[in-house]
TrEMBL record:
<protein>
    <submittedName>
        <fullName>Uncharacterized protein</fullName>
    </submittedName>
</protein>
C-alpha cells in the first residue's frame, strides 16, 4: 500500500506527540514547569476576579502560547532546512531528494 501524504503527516504528528510526552516525563525543567503550571492554575481559578477580567487574562495567555508554538514550529523547520543544506553541502544528500520532500 502506497503511503499518502496525509498518512505520512499523521505518522509524523504521532511521533511528535510521543516525543513531547517523553520530554514532559524525562526533562526535569519541563516537569517542574508543568507542576508549577498546575499549582498556579489552581490559584488563578480561586481568584475572585470578574469574568470579564479573567477573559482578558485567558486571551492574553492564549495569545502568548500560540505565538510561542508558532515560533517553535518555525525554529524546527529552520533546523530541518539547515540540516538538509549542510548535508547537501557535504555531498551527502542529492538535490533531487531534498526537492521531492518539499522542505526547500
Amino acid at each position: 500500500m502506497e503511503m499518502t501524504t496525509r498518512m505520512i503527516m499523521l505518522q509524523n504528528i504521532e511521533k511528535m506527540v510521543k516525543e513531547q510526552d517523553r520530554v514532559d516525563e524525562e526533562d526535569s525543567y519541563i516537569r517542574q514547569d508543568n507542576e508549577d503550571l498546575k499549582y498556579l492554575e489552581g490559584r488563578y481559578e480561586q481568584l475572585q476576579l470578574p469574568h470579564t477580567v479573567k477573559r482578558v487574562i485567558d486571551d492574553y495567555i492564549a495569545c502568548m502560547q500560540t505565538r510561542d508554538e508558532r515560533y517553535s514550529d518555525l525554529s524546527y523547520a529552520a533546523g530541518v532546512r539547515d540540516t538538509i543544506n549542510l548535508l547537501k553541502g557535504l555531498g551527502m544528500l542529492k538535490d533531487t531528494v531534498a526537492a521531492t520532500t518539499g522542505i526547500l
